[in-house]
Amino acid sequence: MRLTRAFLPTLKETPAEAQIVSHRLMLRAGLIRQTSAGIYAWLPAGWRVLQKVTQIVREEQNRAGAQEVLMPTIQSAELWRQSGRYEDYGKEMLRITDRHEREMLYGPTNEEMITDIFRSYATSYRDLPRNLYHIQWKFRDEVRPRFGVMRGREFLMKDGYSFDLTKEASEHSYRQMFLAYLRTFQRLGLKAVPMRADTGPIGGKLSHEFIILAETGESTVFYDTKFDEFDWAGTEVGYDDVEALNSFFEQVTSMYAATDEMHDEAAWAAVPAASQREGKGIEVGHIFHFGTKYSEPMGLSVAGPDGNTVVPQMGSYGIGVSRLVAALIEANHDENGIKWPDAVAPWKLSILNLKVGDAACDALCEKLHAAFPDDAVYDDRGERAGVKFADADLMGMPWQAIVGPRGAAAGKVELKRRATGEREELSLEDALAKLRA
Length: 437
Ligand code: ATP
Ligand code: MG
Description:
With about 425 residues, the protein is an alpha+beta fold. The protein contains 14 helices and 23 strands. A hairpin with a 2-residue loop joins strand 17 and strand 18 (about 335-340).
C-alpha cells in the first residue's frame, strides 16, 4: 500500500471532542470517522484492525465448538412481544415502522431471534447441545454515547447462544464460553479479569463480565492481585472435559473480583490487604446463564430421552468487538501514537523512504514493499523525514523500515520495533529475515 495512493488520513491536531486517548488516536490515525452521534464509519486502517479482532474472536468460538451464523440487524417487534421484552426494553431500542405500518426494530441483541430460529428445527434431545453465534452490528440508543467506539450507538458485537437439555449441561456450556473468552482476550494480548456480575434485565443467576483494567474504564472494580499471575492460556483444559473444566472454573472464580454493583465488603475483607486492588475497568465481554427465560415463553421445547417434553436451558455470550479495538489502543500506546500488537496490527510494516527520488532509496524501498505486498504501508510521499516519522509512530505498525540515502548506498535498512523503540541497522536480507520470523 503506497501512501501516495492510500486513503489513510492522519490528523496533526488533537480533535477537541475526544476525551480519552483511544478516541483521540483513532481519529488522528484515521481509523474511524464519526457520521452521527455514536455512529462511525471504519476507514481502511480501522477496518483492517476490526477484521483481525473479529477473526480471533471467531477462531476461538469455533475452537470451543460454537457454530457461526449471521442473523439480520432488523427484527420484528412481534418476536419481542413473545418474550415480553418489547415494552420493557425502553428508549435504548431503536423502533422502526415499515411501509405497511409493521413495527420493526434494529436489534440491540438477539435472544428472541435465535430462539425463534432454533425452535423451528429442534424437535428432540438429539438436537442438543448446540451453540450458535454471530458477529453483527447492534444498535442501542445510548443516553450518552461517548469515548468514540468505546460506547457507540451502533457497534459490532459477537453474540452467542447455547441450548442444552439440562441445567448441568448448560452450566458446562457456560464454562466452555468462560474459558474461550479468557483465551480470546489473552490472544489479543489483553488481561481481562472475569468478574461476578449482576444479571440485570436479561435475568438469570450465573453471570460474569470480562473487564480490562484501564484508568479510562467506566466500571469501578475490586480484585485480588492473584489474577495478575494467573496464566489461563497455559491451561490445557479440553472443552469436552467436564471435570477439568469445572475445577478450572472453580479455581478462577474463587479469586475475588467484582464490579462495584456486586462488591461484597465481607468477602473483600478476607483478601489480604497487600493483594487488594481497586481500579477502573472496561467491560469487553459478558456471559449469562438464564435457564428457560426465553425458551419457556417462546414455546421452545423438544422430546426428551424418555419421551417427556423438555424446555431447553439457554445462555448468552457477548463480546464487544468494536469496543475491543479502542480497548487495545488504551492498553498499547505512548505519547506519539498507537503501538499495535502484532496479532491485530492493520499492517505489519511501515516503510519510510526518507529521500524519494534517490535511486538507492527507491530501489531498496521497492524491494521491501514487494516482499510484503499486502502487509506493508510504503511512505513514498515527498514529505520531510520528520513528518514521516511522526505519521509512522502515530499509525503504530509493529515494525518500521527506515531507508535513508547514506544507509541505502551501503545497502542498509534501519529496522525499528515500534513497541520498544529498539533500532537496528541491517542488510536487506537480514531485515527481511527478521520481519518474516
Ligand atoms: P455496558 O455496561 O458497557 O453498557 P452492557 O452490559 O449493556 O454494556 P451487554 O449487553 O453485556 O452490554 O453487551 C455485550 C458487550 O457488548 C459488552 O460487554 C460490551 O463489550 C459491548 N457493548 C455494549 N454496549 C456497547 C456500546 N454502546 N458500544 C460498544 N460496545 C458495547
Ligand atoms: Mg454487560
